[in-house]
Amino acid sequence: MDARGPEAPAGRALRDAAENLFQELQEHFQALTATLNLRMEEMGNRIEDLQKNVNDLMVQAGIENSMKEQMLKT
């Protein structure tokens, strides 16, 4: 018993329900955070792969050297 006096059964049930709901919300939020972090990491990896592929294509097309030459001229 705390200093406020005895707790009514309905108050205890309401408190327990609120605590359970809060716990469920925390669990869902943690799962969502983990999912978002994983997807962001995957997206970062895909962007890095795309950059590498674009660079490879530019080298194959001979564009990279001409772009460097143009940058040096300016």
Largest sheet: none
Percent of sequence in beta strands: under 5%
Calculate Rg over CA atoms: 29 Å
Low-confidence stretches: none
User: N-to-C SSE series?
Assistant: HH
Number of strands: 0
Search tags:
74 residues; single chain; mainly alpha; 86% helix
Ordered list of secondary-structure elements with their pairings:
Elements (H helix, E strand, L loop, with lengths): L8 H53 L1 H11 L1
Pfam family, one: HSBP1
Protein name: Heat shock factor-binding protein 1-like protein 1
Organism: Saimiri boliviensis boliviensis
Overview of the molecule:
The chain is mainly α and 74 residues long. It has helices at residues 9-61, 63-73. It has one domain (9-72). It is built from 2 helices and no strands. It is rod-shaped and about 85 Å long. The mean pLDDT is 87. GO terms for molecular function: transcription corepressor activity.
Summarize the structure.
The chain is an all-alpha fold. The chain has one domain. 86% of the residues lie in helices and 0% in strands.
